[in-house]
Amino acid sequence: MSLTRRFLLTLAGVSTAALLTGPALADQASDAARTAKAAEMVDTAQFKKDGPLKVGVSAGYLANSWVVFALQHIHWEASKHSEIENVVVTDAGFNPAKQVSDIEDLMRQDIDLLIYWPVDDASVEDVLKRAVDAGIPTVQAGGGFTDSEGTVANAYISQYKLGEMVARQLMKDIDGKGKIVAMLPIAGTTAAVEQLEALEAVLEDYPDVELLSVEYGDWNRGKAKQITENLLQRFPTITGVYSPAGQMSLGMVEAFDEAGRLSEVTFSPGDEYNGWLKWVAEHQQGGAVTFPTRAGQVALQVGLDILDGTSVPRGTAVESEYIAPSDIEALVSPQAPDDWWASSLPEEFLPQQ
């Protein structure tokens, strides 16, 4: 019997039958399986390579400010390693077909390592496998844990654990009763799937909370606002909002405010999006569950270990933490634009405002 299977069957003393009963337990079992899979060690001897090194970065989209900050973390880490000769970056502009083409182009440029953020996990799976077969290790940066032949390792943020933290804080803030809506990122992505799994699992403990609608705002403030305007027309009562992404939360805030209904709703924690942090500081509501931009830096560190021939975990977790509204001031940059992120980047590597 595999380690993963034994882990699932003995998780917290829960029986096999219990694990297979009900959506909440099924989701918890899925998260446990992902955690166990992430802990598996990968033999990287086949990828060992001396410098100089060329690093390829395939961004599914650079219009998103989180990705821009994560990319700067890559550049910062690269500056510490003299063996890195070049970092080549491509932007697929939310186009899955273009991202496949981008990765093929990076392969033709003889990169030694590929770090990527997908538009869609499934669309790049084949081209990533081709890269691995060609001797180019691949590291997924900042999304949820990805288990596929084309992904050698992950510097991942557990979307399930993040989503669970966000959901439980929202339940606490609405006293475990009311009607809520959910705003998730791009439909079908690991982030959207696992955040919804986490919400549904938490809601099993709160029978007095009704989930009115699940929407997908693509990490886009404007789109989230437009969707929320429609939700406000459909539902005369909305008690709470589950929205782990601060930029979408802020778009929703604008829609509630313009409809004169902001006072009726409680928002969940968002992330370190500066516009959201400013709003939390002013209204002392929601707080933040961090979505660390340093995941890009961790991805490069993992990639360099792979190129050194050092065994690495299949997934290196970049942990989230809850920051209460009363402590949010430490993260806010009052003079910076909304489209900014709290980060540990030194000044010379911060994006241009």
Automatic annotation (TrEMBL):
Protein name in UniProt: Substrate-binding domain-containing protein
Entries under InterPro entries matching the protein: SBP_2_dom, TAT_signal
Family: Belongs to the bacterial solute-binding protein 2 family.
Alphabetical list of Pfam families matching this protein: Peripla_BP_4
Domain Periplasmic binding protein: 55-310
Compartment list: Cell envelope
Domain of life: Bacteria
Annotated organism of origin: Pseudohoeflea coraliihabitans
Signal peptide feature range: 1-26
Assigned keywords, A-Z: Signal
